[in-house]
Amino acid sequence: xxxxxxxxxxxxxxxxxxxxxxxxxxxxxxxxxxxxxxxxxxxxxxxxxxxxxxxxxxxxxxxxxxxxxxxxxxxxxxxxxxxxxxxxxxxxxxxxxxxxxxxxxxxxxxxxxxxxxxxxxxxxxxxxxxxxxxxxxxxxxxxxxxxxxxxxxxxxxxxxxxxxxxxxxxxxx
Length: 173
What we know:
The structure is a single chain. The protein is of the alpha/beta class. Helices cover 36% and strands 18% of the residues. The chain has 7 helices and 5 strands, in the order βαβααβαβααβα. It has a 5-stranded parallel β-sheet with strand order 2-1-3-4-5, with helices on both faces. Strand 1, helix 1 and strand 2 form a beta-alpha-beta unit.
């Protein structure tokens, strides 16, 4: 199994049943290292050098977060701004993201039809998180899958378990 870093950012985890289920899954499996950004950096002071160094130790990354005001949580945005280093693109520099598998898991309370060109918000979720997607592509990461869980706050325990199973099967391919 690939050594995986989970970059998890949920400012209101105590109110999220669907995220907690996967959170607990990561904790129980030794090949996943969970970094809960809101737990680790409650003051928003990110140890960028330490985070950059940590990225080198992993084969795969999972970015998991809820859609908040039509984008990434603010601490995840800050983490990307401070940790991703343009020097990685210079010749002779090591780029810890190049060729690494990336999975993105997003939860939202909105309905899937709301996130269409003709829906309530007129934007797809992938468009709303384009900053993350473009950043990963610039650093030549291999985005394998983006999973969006709609109406996450209304899911039954059975539905949450089915989403978890589907996501873990993706990771095992």
